[in-house]
């Protein structure tokens, strides 16, 4: 009996901690983070590399002939090295044009949550100046409804159709993430209330039902976190890549809100296991049956 009470109390305590972690994850915006400081610094160095007087900048796409680096010129010759020279020259030109394409876009250091996306404070000085002037907002809400105003303009019809389909798919993933994490919190809270009542009334069935509800809430939490990860990966792999992809020098990853949600998931599953195991340790009351005495050979 004492072991059952210890397991039930531990399970309810873990479920309460899981509710706190999930509530913290839902209310904060550190699910996904990006750091674009290195990329912005690299683009500044690339733009200021040739700013001396008299230098006229011409885009790489407009030059029919370009000089390769000195290392390529020194290796120039006849035979097999000529093919390698051409391949390295093409790789050099492609890298330069890719750098120019990435620097033409504005990348900011951001944090994202279930409800809004914000600029990280103290990361980009130019962005901070614009925020203090009121030109841009620090946080923008995450949309859970479809709007055609977010679609880019002046694009071919096939690319616009692909972007529209991808936008619907990303919207469904966001809705599933928010919906299932809300269901998980509601189910865990309901199970915790039933578990507390079962503890007060010493009702084994209520404690077992509370454990099943914890396991069900953990299942909803697993679905929510998996769809969240799938949504982030889908956003990074959307087409066209030059509009939705991230350069290699931008560091990105999951924040502490995501780890709080995973921690709440682990505690919920452990609480469900303990609460469903506890009733099996209770000792049933034994009832003694009195047999009738035999007298004179008769019952």
Question: How would you portray this structure in words?
Answer:
The protein has 299 residues and is an alpha+beta fold. The chain is built from nine helices and five strands, in the order αβαααββαβαααβα. Strands 4-3-2-1-5 form a five-stranded antiparallel beta sheet. A hairpin with a 3-residue loop joins β2 and β3. The longest helix has 45 residues. The two termini are 40 Å apart. About 6% of the residues have low confidence.
What's the helix and strand layout?
Layout: H1 2-27, E1 32-35, H2 37-47, H3 70-74, H4 80-103, E2 110-112, E3 116-119, H5 125-132, E4 139-141, H6 157-201, H7 204-236, H8 241-244, E5 251-254, H9 256-277
Antiparallel strand pairs: 1-2, 1-5, 2-3, 3-4
- The best one-word shape is elongated
Number of strands: 5
Order of helices and strands: HEHHHEEHEHHHEH
State the end-to-end CA separation. Answer: 40 Å
Q: Which class best fits the helix and strand makeup?
A: alpha+beta
Helix content: 55-70%
Number of helices: 9
């Amino acid at each position: 009996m004492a072991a059952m009470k210890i397991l039930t109390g531990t399970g309810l305590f873990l479920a309460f901690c899981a509710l706190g972690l999930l509530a913290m994850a839902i209310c904060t915006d550190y699910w996904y983070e990006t750091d674009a400081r290195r990329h912005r610094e690299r683009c500044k160095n690339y733009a200021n590399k040739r700013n001396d007087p008299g230098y006229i900048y011409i885009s790489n796409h407009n030059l029919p002939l370009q000089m390769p680096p000195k290392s390529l010129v020194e290796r120039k010759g006849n035979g097999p090295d000529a093919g390698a020279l051409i391949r390295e020259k093409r790789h050099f030109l492609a890298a330069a044009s890719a750098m120019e394409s990435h620097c033409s876009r504005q990348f900011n250091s951001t944090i994202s949550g279930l409800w809004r996306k914000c600029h990280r404070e103290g990361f980009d000085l130019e962005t901070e100046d614009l925020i203090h002037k009121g030109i841009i907002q620090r946080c923008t809400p995450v949309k859970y409804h479809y709007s055609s105003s977010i679609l880019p303009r002046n694009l071919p019809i096939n690319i616009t159709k692909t972007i529209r389909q991808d936008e619907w798919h990303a919207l469904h993933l966001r809705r599933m993430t928010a919906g299932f994490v809300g269901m998980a919190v509601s189910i865990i809270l309901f199970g915790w209330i039933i578990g507390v009542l079962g503890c007060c009334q010493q009702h084994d069935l209520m404690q077992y039902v509370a454990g099943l509800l914890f396991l069900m809430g953990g299942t909803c939490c697993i679905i929510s976190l998996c769809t969240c990860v799938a949504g982030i990966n889908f956003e990074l792999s959307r087409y066209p890549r030059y509009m939705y992809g991230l350069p290699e020098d931008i560091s990105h990853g999951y924040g502490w809100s995501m780890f709080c949600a995973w921690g709440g998931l682990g505690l919920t599953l452990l609480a469900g296991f303990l609460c469903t195991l506890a009733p099996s340790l209770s000792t049933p009351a034994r009832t003694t049956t009195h047999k009738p005495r035999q007298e004179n050979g008769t019952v």
